[in-house]
Design a protein that fits this description.
The chain is of the alpha/beta class and about 325 residues long. The protein is about 50% helix and about 20% strand. The protein folds into two domains: about 30-110 and about 210-330, Periplasmic binding protein-like II (D-Maltodextrin-Binding Protein, domain 2); about 115-205, 3-Layer(aba) Sandwich (D-Maltodextrin-Binding Protein, domain 2), CATH 3.40.190.10. The longest helix is centred in the N-terminal third of the chain and has 22 residues, at about 5-25.
C-alpha cells in the first residue's frame, strides 16, 4: 500500500504538534515572588529573563511584591508557592506561628548602608532623630538596627525606627524631612537627584562579615512536602542564574538596569559588583545568620522558642551539590 507524500507531510506536522503540546503539558505552573527590583534580588528576575525556569520545566509567574513581610503574607495566603524572604522575616513569622521554611539562600550577608542627611556628621548627630524602614521584621529593619549598633547607638531608645514603606516612600520621606535617614542597598543613592546625603556607615565597614540570610527561597512545609520536585526546579534555575551573574557581567548588568529602570552606570556597576561578589555558589543557609535572627525574633515574644532546624531545610541544596549539578555549571 502506497502512502502519498501529502500524507507523510501531514503526519510529520501532527508529530511536531504533538511534541509541542507535550512540551507545553510538561511545563508545570508555579507562582513565585521577589521583593525588590534591586540587583540583590536579580537571581529571581534574571532566571525569568534567561528562560531558566522554563529550562527546568516550569511555567513561572513571577510577581513583584515589595518587602519580605508582604511576600511572606502572600506565601501563607497561598497566593504564591515560593518567595524571596530574608531570615529575619521568616523567623518573625515562625515565632508568630507560621510554618515556613527556607530551602536555599543565595546571598548570606546583608549589604546595606545607612544613608543620612548631609547635615549629620556623626553618630551623636543622629540621636533623637528617626530612621525609616519598610516594615518591622523586614531586611531594612534588621539592617537599620545592625547599622545603628555599629555606631554604638541603641535602636528605638536613642534613634527611633519608624515604618515608612518601600524604597521610593523612604526617599520621599527623607526629602520631606520626616526621617533623618534610611538603610539602603549599595548604590541606590546614585539614583537620587537633588537629595543631599552622606553614607554614615555600611555593613562593609564591619570588622567581620555581617552574617544574614538575605536573599533566600522560602516556602511552606506543606508545599515542600507536596511539591518537592517543583521547589527543586526553582532552586536549580536560581543556581544557574547565580552562575550567569558571576560569569556574564555585561549581560547581567543590562538585565539589572532594566529592572531597576535606570541607565545610571555608577549605580549599576556598584550594585552589580556587590551582588556578584556576595552571591554564594552553593546556596546553603548560614546557621550563624539564622541564629542571630532567631534570637532577635524570640526576644520580641518572651517565652517563644525556635531552632535553626525549625525554619531551614537544606536537603535539596545538599542533594544538588552532591550530585555534581553545581560543579558542572562552573566547569562549562
Amino acid at each position: 500500500m502506497k502512502v502519498s507524500r501529502p500524507c507523510y507531510f501531514l503526519g510529520g506536522l501532527w508529530l511536531i504538534a504533538a511534541g509541542l503540546l507535550q512540551c507545553a503539558w510538561a511545563q508545570e505552573k508555579v507562582r513565585l515572588a521577589h521583593s525588590a527590583l534591586e540587583t540583590s534580588n536579580a537571581v529571581w528576575f534574571l532566571a525569568q529573563e534567561r528562560g531558566l525556569y522554563k529550562k527546568y520545566g516550569l511555567e513561572a509567574d513571577l510577581l513583584f511584591i515589595p518587602s519580605t513581610t508582604t511576600s511572606v503574607a502572600s506565601l501563607l495566603a497561598g497566593d504564591v508557592q515560593v518567595t524571596n524572604a530574608s531570615g529575619g522575616g521568616v523567623a518573625s513569622a515562625a515565632v508568630a506561628g507560621a510554618d515556613l521554611v527556607m530551602v536555599a539562600c543565595y546571598l548570606n550577608s546583608l549589604p546595606y548602608e545607612l544613608v543620612v542627611a548631609e547635615t549629620i556628621k556623626s553618630a551623636e548627630d543622629l540621636k533623637g532623630k528617626s530612621i525609616g524602614i519598610s516594615r518591622l521584621g523586614s531586611a531594612s529593619d534588621v539592617a537599620a538596627r545592625a547599622l545603628l549598633r555599629g555606631l554604638n547607638l541603641e535602636p528605638d531608645k536613642q534613634v527611633p525606627i519608624i515604618q515608612v514603606g518601600g524604597s521610593s516612600e523612604r526617599a520621599a520621606a527623607f526629602r520631606a524631612g520626616r526621617i533623618a535617614g534610611f538603610p539602603s542597598p549599595p548604590g541606590i543613592v546614585h539614583l537620587t537627584k537633588g537629595m543631599p546625603f552622606r553614607v554614615l556607615i555600611g555593613t562593609a565597614d564591619f570588622k567581620e562579615r555581617f552574617e544574614f540570610p538575605y536573599i533566600c527561597a522560602a516556602t511552606t512545609r506543606n508545599y515542600l512536602a507536596r511539591s518537592r520536585e517543583t521547589v527543586k526546579k526553582v532552586i536549580m534555575a536560581h543556581i544557574e542564574a547565580v552562575h550567569f551573574v558571576k560569569t556574564r557581567k555585561d549581560e547581567s548588568k543590562k538585565i539589572m538596569a532594566k529592572y531597576a529602570r535606570t541607565t545610571n552606570e555608577d549605580y549599576v556597576e556598584s550594585a552589580y559588583s556587590a551582588s556578584a561578589k556576595l552571591y554564594d555558589v552553593v546556596p546553603l543557609v548560614t546557621r550563624p545568620g539564622v541564629e542571630i535572627q532567631i534570637k532577635e525574633a524570640t526576644s520580641r515574644k518572651p517565652g517563644s522558642q525556635l531552632r535553626f532546624e525549625d525554619i531551614v531545610d537544606e536537603g535539596i541544596v545538599r542533594e544538588l551539590d552532591k550530585s555534581g549539578f553545581i560543579e558542572k555549571l562552573y566547569k562549562k
